[in-house]
Amino acid sequence: MTQILIVGATSAMARGCAYAWAKQGQRLVLAGRDLTELERIASDIRLRFASNVQVAELDLDNVKHLSTRWSDIEAAHGDIDGVLMAAGWMPEDNDAMRRDTPALQVIARNFTGPVALLNAAADAFETRKNGFIVGISSVAGDRGRQSNYLYGAAKGGFSIYLAGLRNRLFASGVPVLTVKPGFVDTRMTWGLPGLFLVADPMQLGEQIVQAQAAGKSTVYLPSFWRLIMLIIQHVPEFVFKRLKL
Ligand SMILES: NC(=O)c1ccc[n+]([C@@H]2O[C@H](COP(=O)([O-])OP(=O)(O)OC[C@H]3O[C@@H](n4cnc5c(N)ncnc54)[C@H](OP(=O)(O)O)[C@@H]3O)[C@@H](O)[C@H]2O)c1
């Protein structure tokens, strides 16, 4: 039985993963900013699956303190054997990304924060030659688009980071899975115009757990997004910059 740390555990996608792991009898530590909501989710999981679920406070905006936070969480809850990095943030207002504070928050919550925490996890797993890492990136990281290029850049950077980490940890037997969802029906996308083929977050969570167990490196979810993104990546720049995407 393993103990899995889920960062951004109030996300519906993360809850789908938590259910799937709890069903298998894994122990969970749900981490995030909103302890009341985390406790509510933990109680729900305990009731449904009679599983061992703890909660921990963690704010990715405190980038400098995340390595200490990792050690504190392990000291309080025991060794962590797997991490799901599900946290992320996209401002509702695209223009917000042009202002300094929201722009820095986009980068902290989607890139520098996740990297700081996973660096600490990676060091521990590499030493123990045990563990796994799952990072939720996005198809938005596959090509810069005028409507959300800052979020896309942070996710693109996160995907590259996960790819490098996967290569580094391969020799230690620590798998790293990159998840690239398309549109998913969650708080992040609620009310956004122009969405299509929107996926169910609970189902997606189960698919993430299956992909991790199968030892996959990168998955697009749902899988047809691989083809969509292949096409989008091959649209010539002189055409792409004229599209209002
Ligand atoms: N929905 C989509 O269509 C879609 C598509 C591709 C990728 N994704 C990615 O999927 C992941 C899950 O997102 P979601 O769609 O389920 O949206 P969500 O419900 O908004 O979940 C985002 C999670 O990130 C956490 N978070 C935000 N800022 C944080 C911070 N400073 N410190 C710690 N946790 C923080 C939130 O916690 P709080 O409860 O404290 O706010 C929440 O748990 C994200 O990485 C997102 O970028 C989503």
Automatic annotation (TrEMBL):
Pfam families assigned: adh_short (PF00106)
Signal peptide: none
Superkingdom classification of source: Bacteria
SUPFAM superfamilies the record matches: NAD(P)-binding Rossmann-fold domains (SSF51735)
Alphabetical keyword list: Oxidoreductase
Entry keyword DNA damage: no
InterPro entries reported in the protein's UniProt record: NAD(P)-bd_dom_sf (IPR036291), SDR_fam (IPR002347)
PANTHER family linked to this entry: DEHYDROGENASE/REDUCTASE SDR FAMILY MEMBER 7B, SHORT CHAIN DEHYDROGENASE FAMILY PROTEIN
Stated family: Belongs to the short-chain dehydrogenases/reductases (SDR) family.
NCBIfam families: PRK07102.1 (NF005489)
Protein name: SDR family oxidoreductase
